[in-house]
Specification:
The chain is α/β, with parallel strands linked by helices. It has seven helices and six strands. A hairpin with a 4-residue loop joins strand 5 and strand 6. It starts with a helix and ends with a helix.
Length: about 180
């Protein structure tokens, strides 16, 4: 009897897991092709605090790495070097832009600029102190593993997901960027 009950519970749990994966996949596919609203973003750091508004450039492709207020920014700052291949494309092509968008929690706000100085990041960072990025883009998935986006020239989402999770995902991003910017 216990064995039958275990098998039934196991099958039920497995079906729930499959349904969650299907729902997650459906939510991600609903994001593809949506236009991302970047109007609320103001660059605030580029190796130093930017005191004036700088418009983001018009490009063929843009990769957004988004860190929300639930994520530890100090932990993620250390992983920015993992995106070196994309930073090199950013440096090589005028038609590609790599954007870091940070939405710090209240506790992290006072430390975030200092922490950016410490990691010697010289890419432009957009700090979303008012959390308007998510408000303007409600289709952004909740999970941090889905907070990297590749956009085309019209800011439509072409790819979703962190390219650092695996070599196939990284290659997909690199090949898609190359095809868009060339």
């Amino acid at each position: 009897m216990k064995r039958v009950l275990f098998i039934v519970l196991f099958c039920w749990a497995l079906s729930l897991f499959q349904n969650c994966r299907q729902i997650e996949s459906l939510k991600l596919s609903n994001c593809l092709g949506k236009e991302m609203d970047l109007s609320s973003l103001t660059p605030t750091f580029n190796g130093k605090v930017l005191s004036h508004k700088v418009a983001y450039p018009k490009v063929g492709a843009r990769m957004i790495i988004y860190l929300d207020s639930a994520q530890c920014h100090q932990c993620h700052f250390k992983s920015f070097s993992n995106y070196r291949a994309f930073q090199e494309i950013n440096d090589e092509y005028d038609s590609f832009d790599l954007m870091y968008v940070l939405s710090p929690s209240q506790e992290e706000r006072q430390h975030i600029l200092h922490d950016l100085y410490l990691i010697h990041l010289h890419d432009v960072v957009y700090i979303d102190f008012d959390n308007k990025f998510l408000a303007n883009n409600p289709f952004v998935p909740r999970g941090p593993k889905y907070h990297v986006f590749l956009l085309d020239s019209l800011s439509r989402v072409k790819l979703i997901g962190d390219p650092m999770v695996g070599s196939q995902m990284k290659e997909l991003y690199l090949s898609t960027i190359t095809s868009i910017v060339n």
